[in-house]
Specification:
Elements lengths: L1 E2 L2 E13 L5 E13 L1 E6 L4 E6 L10 H12 L5 E7 L9 H16 L6 H9 L5 H6 L3 E5 L3 E4 L8 E6 L6 H5 L11 H5 L6 H4 L5 H7 L1 H12 L4 E4 L6 E5 L13 E6 L1
Helix pairs in contact: 1-2, 2-3, 8-9
């Protein structure tokens, strides 16, 4: 079995307040985009996990794909497998690649071994691995609340729009993102803002991480400004960073001066 875990972008991200459990209450809209890792899962005599492409550092037991296999094996009788992950989605980029890989391991094992696990249960298992993981179980546009694991569908059609992603090889850690974040104090929910014409999003649709992260990494603000100069209808940082994306009506004519930037021209 070969499957293709997809990346996501965040259309708006409101950090609302810090909860008593030390997590932050969030509101965001997550949308899948056509940028993929490649994941192979086949039955095997012994468990093996191999990885190629972009290097994933860390011990084997801490890898989210391995954790997803272990948590499913905890509740279901499944045989050992061989997994090979070809990593192509940049890490620490706000694109959710690792979370998507984990969710697709759960989906893949469910399909491969005919476990018939309901979607709600797969999302519950995914939530134990990371806040973004449940979204990728289905991958359709969702409003996410709570830590990001409370999902509700939203009707959103960006078909035909062009998407430019730039990952400037700047890693923004979760601790850095939350260290000085400003809480959202606006009057409108993200669902209400997204109901407005897309041309209005640039005035109202905020990622509240941007204010202090742009101060720490001014290159990111420069990229967003350049997106607008190139004709973007809307541009923002995805998640807690550091990918900057722009949505365009036509494929943008964008010039690049830095070889270290990873650049992706996509279409919804």
């Amino acid at each position: 079995m070969i499957i293709f875990p997809q990346a996501k972008i965040n259309l708006g991200l409101h950090v609302l307040y810090k909860r008593p459990d030390s997590y932050h209450e969030l509101e965001t809209c997550m949308v899948s985009i056509p940028l993929y890792d490649i994941l192979e899962i086949v039955p095997s005599q012994q468990f093996e996990f191999h990885q190629s492409g972009i290097e994933v550092r860390g011990e084997l037991h801490s890898n989210l794909c391995v954790k997803a296999y272990e948590i499913l094996k905890k509740y279901h009788s499944i045989p050992t497998v061989y997994m090979h992950l070809r990593k192509q989605i940049p890490m620490g980029a706000g694109l959710g690649g690792g979370s998507s890989d984990a969710a697709h391991v759960i989906n893949g094992l469910n399909d491969l071994f005919g476990l018939n696990i309901p979607q709600a249960r797969r999302e519950e298992l995914a939530a134990s691995l990371g806040s973004d993981c449940p979204f990728f179980v289905e991958g359709t546009p969702k409003i996410a609340q709570g830590r990001g694991e409370v999902l509700a569908p939203i009707s959103l059609d960006l078909k035909g729009y062009h998407l430019l992603l730039i990952y400037p090889n700047i890693h923004v850690s979760t601790a850095e993102a939350y260290s000085n974040v400003s809480f959202y104090s606006g009057d409108f929910s993200i669902r209400e803002i997204l109901a407005q014409p897309i041309e209005e999003w640039k005035f109202n649709l905020q990622n509240t991480f941007e204010k202090h992260i742009f101060e720490i990494h001014p290159r990111l603000k420069s990229l967003r400004d350049e997106m607008y100069e190139a004709g973007a209808i809307y541009s923002a940082m995805s998640g807690s960073g550091s990918t900057i994306f722009g949505i365009f009506k036509e494929k943008p004519n964008f010039e690049f001066n830095r070889k270290e930037d990873a650049v992706y021209f996509l279409e919804f």
